[in-house]
Amino acid sequence: MKIIDRFFCVLMSFCIFLSKLMLIAMVMIMCVSVFYRYVLNSGIRWSDEVAMLLMVWFGFISVAYGVQHKLHISVELFYGMMPAKVQWACVKVINLMVCYLGVTVSYYGVKLMQSTMNNVMTATKWPASTLYAALPIAGVLIAYFSFTDLIGYPSGQSNSDAINDAINKEETISDLTNCADANVDINKEETVSDFNNNNKETVLDNTKGGE
């Protein structure tokens, strides 16, 4: 499992490096295209097509990266009200659904590549399957990282990292418990102090009334 995990983590790192280059290239191409169009009254024929290709690849790699690091938006309004066991079950169901989504994207991505293999893009004359090649790659990464979350495998972490994370979680829980106990003690002291003050005021009022 460690060898497989290492392979997917290296593949993800390589894809992230490519996505950075794609983002830079996409911005540069669009800036040059705008300059040519509005300043030189000309145009670059392949600019829109290449920018679209880079955007598709960048988008799908970003989705896979978000699944790996749990960066996607989640609504936790009702999740926080659920018991711990129900929350655990919901997380597993979500991971299973995301894993199924990754497998589906990979499967239909391969079919799209096969069906467009003989077609070419209009401006660049590149194979149309180049555009859809991002789907199976991103789908496999999505399926793998969601599967590791499903089985609880610490993907991308060494044993020492996993142990450190567990220790940090225990320390955080301990700190929260200590803070809660301290707040309870403070509240008790404030309650006792208020009660004593009220008793003193009552005694003084009774004394004044007797006089």
What this model shows, in words?
α1 (about 1-40) packs antiparallel against α2 (about 45-70) and α2 runs parallel beside α5. The protein is mainly α and about 210 residues long. The protein has helices at about 1-40, 45-70, 85-115, 130, 135-150, 160-210. It contains six helices and no strands. The longest helix has about 50 residues, at about 160-210.
What is the 3D form?
extended
Number of strands: 0
Give the count of structural domains.
2
Largest sheet, in brief, is: none
- Beta content comes to under 5%
Series of H and E elements: HHHHHH
Secondary structure elements and pairings:
Elements: H1 2-38, H2 47-69, H3 84-115, H4 129-132, H5 134-151, H6 159-210
Task: Note the main attributes of this structure.
mainly alpha; 2 domains; 6 helices
Question: What is shown here, in short?
Answer:
This protein is an all-alpha fold and 211 residues long. Helix content is 79%, strand content 0%. The protein is built from 6 helices and no strands.
